[in-house]
Amino acid sequence: MIDRDQDNSSLALERLRAMLRDIPATGDAKIPTERGLAETLGISRRSVRRALEVLEAEGLVWRRQGAGTFAGPRPDTLDEVEAPEANFSEVMEVRLRVEPQLAQLAALRASASAVARMRDILTRLEATEDADGRELWDSALHREIARAAGNRFFMMIFDSIDRARLDDTWRALRERARSRANLALYARQHHELIDAIVAHDPVRAGQAMRAHISALNDGILLLASLEALDEVS
Fold first, then answer.
1. 18 with 43, same domain?
2. Are residues 96 and 196 in the same domain?
3. What's the pLDDT score for residue 227?
């Protein structure tokens, strides 16, 4: 075994290649850190880093700062694009233009099993009594509709939009906007949306989704305006 303080980038590359042969090159299989690899391979960390640079150039691994190194080519999604700080108005503008189209496609393509999942998720959403659960199941419902649309490029855009839900400030604002009346409205809209998908009516499904997103947008804008007035006064 070579002293791990010794540089031997070529040997590090050879051993990493051998290691990667046993790991599925799916792009989501994380491999150990540079420090861990250096310990395992008995080669300096600098040599490991250099070898990883070669493997990345060859498309055999990819790296993301703060997340680690993964076996296989970089996934062809928007996940690796650094998302800007969540901006409510920008995200809602995109949702209003993308999600009605997803609903229309879902009405044309949703399978019986996809519809069953939508109904199950909606039941779970309506049974949830806490903010975190509502966020979880509401996101799951919109994601299931997006999946039913059957368009991977639209799904990439949806994934990028949906990550904005993770912003704590925005999560808190959405929950404050969920008055009892609003929750009842959103529930009716969800049922109307799924009914349109079940009926394979893309026009009605698109209209239902647009009405739902618009109601969300209006509710949050109203709350934000009222809270701004309270701060001034």
1. yes
2. yes
3. 66
Domains contained in the chain, number: 2
Q: Are residues 71 and 84 in the same domain?
A: no
- Match 């792009």 to its residue by tokens: 27
Tokens 């999600």 correspond to 99
Rounded Cα distance between 233 and 231, Å, is 6
Of 202 and 17, more confident: 202
- Residue-wise pLDDT for 25-66, tens only, equals 776 788 899 999 999 888 889 889 888 988 887 788 888 877
- Please report, to the nearest 10 degrees, the dihedral formed by the alpha carbons of residues 80, 82, 86, 90 taken in order: -90
- Of 180, 139, 176, 183, the closest CA to residue 159 belongs to 139
Same-domain status, 221 and 106: yes
My answer on whether 31 and 94 are in the same domain is no
- % of the chain beyond a pLDDT of 70: 88
Hey, what are 142's tokens?
A: 């919109």
| Integer Cα distance of 193 and 171 in angstroms | 23
14 part of a folded domain: yes
**Whole-angstrom Cα distance, residue 24 to residue 83?**
28
Q: Which amino acid is at 135?
A: E
Domain containing 149 equals 80-232
